[in-house]
Amino acid sequence: MNCNVCGTQLADGAVFCPNCGNAVQANNPQQPQQQPNFQQPNFQQPNFQQPNFQQPNFQQPGFQQPGFQQPGFQQPFQQPDTPTPGKALGIVSMILGILSLVLFCYYYLSIPCAIVSIILSCIGKSQAKKAGKSLGMATAGLVCSIVALAIDIIIIATGAAILAELGVF
Ligand SMILES: [Zn+2]
């Protein structure tokens, strides 16, 4: 390159002309190195759409409580058109059974009452059983009679023991 003022040949890289002192730099316009515009590629992030994990709608099965309808326990006594067979016997048996209990002091009355009550109770219960029914009163009469008989036996045994002891004297 040459100096633009005096034309002197200049060495490469010279800043000032050795002849005239001209600043060479002005004559050596820096070519602005255009930096290539490295446009950053627009890495568009792929739009990872989160899959819409819809929770399946677990509908709780409707455990409907089965309607435990209480079966209508119809009282058999509410059927006047079909009277329980042996019912009258059951009533008499119960009355005699209670009598035999009340009259336990008088064993000569209590024991026959109890025996009759047991017999009537057994007849009444068997009649009711044939019809497929139960006779609570006959059962009550039977229980009363058995208890009365047991009490009578104890009393008689006790009395007999007393009599025996008296007989000793
Ligand atoms: Zn020069």
Summarize the structure.
The chain has 169 residues and is mainly alpha-helical. Helices cover 46% and strands 0% of the residues. The termini are far apart.
Structure description:
- With 169 residues, the protein is mostly helical.
- The protein has a domain at 85-168.
- Helix content is 46%, strand content 0%.
- Helix 2 (87-102) packs antiparallel against helix 3, helix 2 runs parallel beside helix 4 and helix 3 (107-130) runs antiparallel to helix 4 (136-168).
- The radius of gyration is 63 Å and the shape is rod-shaped.
- The relative contact order is 0.10.
Descriptive labels:
169 residues; binds zinc ion
Please outline the helices and strands.
Elements: H1 24-27, H2 87-102, H3 107-130, H4 136-168
Helix pairs in contact: 2-3, 2-4, 3-4
Bound molecules: zinc ion
* Strand segment count: 0
Distance from N terminus to C terminus (CA atoms, Å) equals 175 Å
The helix count comes to 4
The proportion of residues forming helix, as a percent range, comes to: 40-55%
Largest sheet features: none
Net shape: rod-shaped
Give the radius of gyration.
Answer: 63 Å
Arithmetic mean pLDDT: 75
List segments where confidence is low: pLDDT < 50 over at least 5 consecutive residues. 26-32
What structural class do you assign from the helix and strand content?
mainly alpha
Beta-strand residue fraction: under 5%
What is the N-to-C succession of helices and strands?
HHHH
